[in-house]
Specification:
Distance between the termini: 22 Å
Bound molecules: adenosine-5'-triphosphate
Radius of gyration: 20 Å
Mean pLDDT: 96
Shape: globular
Oligomer: single chain
Low-confidence stretches: none
């Protein structure tokens, strides 16, 4: 337990600024309620900062993140701002690699009071977590693409260390969820072991790690079949673990299952550092209009409190996370607010106010 927790706040670009303001207001209200002290310090980074200064992720921001107890991140990148190689400015990837944030944690659940695109009543039971390996896989190729006379080659990297630690993380998460929810737990590995040697190796390691966790059910599926199953019967899954690129794609798919990107929080967790951000990007199409749904950002802040609470054995933080989660559930189930992305008229400020009122 610490008297005060240092939080590096990186709002970024587009709606990142708007949803971060919402999360900061919720955290400030929570501090008054629980007595927990959070020192939120805003840091510069992102595509706009790159335009202004020529640097996307300044050294001072990296140092502040290094010194902080946790990093709260909005969204970064603007479609028209590109580096010399034509790719977008995405400092979040640099942060993931710099701080070795290997576990991308993407929880998804259905909220009562909000429509889902799935017709089945079973959709109300969706409650799963996608764990995405975030430091290797196909993203290893970033900045390393090899140009040959006939084209460009990107390499997928799957190491024993990288795969073991992400599978271990997934099983520990499943064990924790099983204990919290008082039911059995299950980890489903998603790969393409029928085609690629790297993926066959990944599966072998998954099975080795699974053998160390006999209390958890374990199974595997090919990523193409999983894309189908996540639309047909997502309520049957608990924890999924997968390679970086597959996880990138499937995390947007699962966000769609519950109706929108604005409901999907996420965390990038390493052994020493962790960053919490909504699964969505900067959404330039709605930026500056007050229409962004801040829920994913607010729920990411709750994940941060939960992680800090575990790490520092501070029950006040874990209670704070629970308060936010319950307030979010209540504002939607009561019909008090409905975000624009669900066909409603509640602004970012309306939703923030409602969540604060429910704390
Ligand atoms: P990236 O390429 O980083 O994923 P993007 O801006 O292309 O970023 P997203 O921001 O992830 O894509 O979102 C896709 C679309 O979903 C947006 O254009 C926007 O219409 C909608 N959207 C995303 N986040 C929100 C939100 N918090 N509230 C409302 N709508 C959102």
């Amino acid at each position: 337990m610490k008297p005060e927790y240092q939080i590096a706040v990186l709002p970024g670009d587009g709606i990142g600024n708007e949803v971060m303001q919402a999360a900061e207001q919720v955290l400030q209200a929570l501090q008054k309620r629980t007595g927990v002290a959070l020192a939120l310090s805003t840091q510069k980074a992102g595509a706009q900062h790159y335009l202004d200064s020529g640097v996307a992720l300044p050294e001072a921001t990296l140092k502040a993140c290094e010194a902080a107890d946790a990093i709260l991140f909005g969204a970064m990148g603007l479609p028209h701002v590109r580096g010399a190689d034509g790719t977008e400015i995405i400092p979040q990837l640099d942060l993931r690699f710099h701080f070795d944030l290997y576990a991308g944690v993407r929880p998804i659940r259905t909220f009562k009071g909000l429509p889902t695109p799935l017709a089945s009543p079973k959709a109300a039971e969706i409650d799963l977590v996608l764990v995405r390996e975030s430091t290797e896989g196909l993203f290893y190729a970033r900045g390393r693409g090899e140009t040959r006379p006939d084209g460009v080659y990107d390499t997928m990297q799957i190491t024993r260390k990288g795969t073991s630690r992400i599978c271990e993380f997934a099983f520990r998460l499943a064990e924790r969820r099983a204990a919290q929810k008082g039911r059995a737990g299950r980890v489903t590995n998603v790969d393409k072991a029928n085609v690629f040697a790297s993926m066959a190796f990944w599966r072998k390691i998954f099975e080795e790690v699974a053998a160390k966790h006999p209390g958890m059910a374990a199974d595997s599926a090919y990523v193409d079949a999983m894309a189908l199953n996540l639309v047909m019967k997502p309520w049957t899954y608990d924890v999924l673990v997968t390679e970086n690129m597959f996880g990138d794609i499937l995390s947007d798919l699962i966000a769609a299952l519950v109706g929108g990107m604005g409901m999907a929080p996420s965390a990038d967790i390493g052994d020493r550092h962790a960053l919490f951000q909504p699964a969505h990007g900067t959404a330039p199409d709605i930026a500056g209009q007050g229409k962004a749904n801040p829920t994913a950002m607010i729920l990411s802040a709750a994940m941060m409190l939960d992680w800090l609470g575990d790490r520092h054995d501070d029950i006040r933080l874990k209670d704070g996370a629970g308060l936010i989660d319950r307030a979010v559930e209540q504002v939607f189930s009561s019909g008090q607010v409905r975000p624009f992305e669900f066909g409603g008229t509640s602004s970012t400020a309306d939703i923030t106010r409602a969540v604060i009122g429910g704390l």
